[in-house]
Amino acid sequence: MKISIVTISFNQKQYLKACIDSILSQAGCEIEYIIVDPGSRDGSRELINTYGEQIIKVFEPDEGPADGLNQGFARATGEVYGFINSDDYLLPNALAAVSDFFKQRQHSTFVTGQGFTEYADGRRAPITPNVLTEQVMLHRSAVLFQQATFFSAEMFKQAGGFNTQNKTCWDYELYLKFLVNGATHQIIPQDLAVFRLHAGSISGSGRLNDLYFDELDHLFEKYVGRKRNWLDKGRTVYLRTQRELARRALRAHS
Prior knowledge:
CATH architecture: Alpha-Beta Complex
Number of helices: 10
Structural class: alpha/beta
CATH superfamily: Spore Coat Polysaccharide Biosynthesis Protein SpsA, Chain A
Radius of gyration: 18 Å
Shape: globular
Distance between the termini: 26 Å
Number of domains: 1
CATH topology: Spore Coat Polysaccharide Biosynthesis Protein SpsA, Chain A
């Protein structure tokens, strides 16, 4: 089983080598690695080129991260897809665990593993995602861990790829599309990836927070057919409480 991994990269050379090495060093499965760089000027492209044919390179302009990911997956030939940002990285044996999961299950499901947030000072905090459902996602009760999430090529193509108009939560919208299309989500109780949180990242800077919540509201209206109200907000509080209880139990037994 071949796993295709796409990385979008733009002027993050200081993190890029660790990301690349974490993927190319994976054992126990066949890997296809694609890096999309729309025009870095910090030496990133030169670094990518040192890996030769180990990496499929997409050095073309794009209209943002979602478009870049679509360009990358347009070149993918694997049966299973995943994507990881240039400042994040996989843990050893992560893709072997993913390969084993998909060999044992139908492709009508997608999967997320556990892992860590890594702060600029080197501290780590565990990430324990919850099982995703339409209700959980529409009511903002999802703990997404994109770096450790994998799905079939067929599922991605059925969903039509990423919405290039979504500028903050393209991954959230994609996973919601999977669920709307009838997919199920499962958790691998194993640490698979690390999400780096730093001042230069979108999450670390918080510069797009307002747009992020606007786009979540848009998704709610699109799939529910109305605006969020106070009852929905109460439902969010309830679901988040249930989520935390489930996550603690999962982490305690992993």
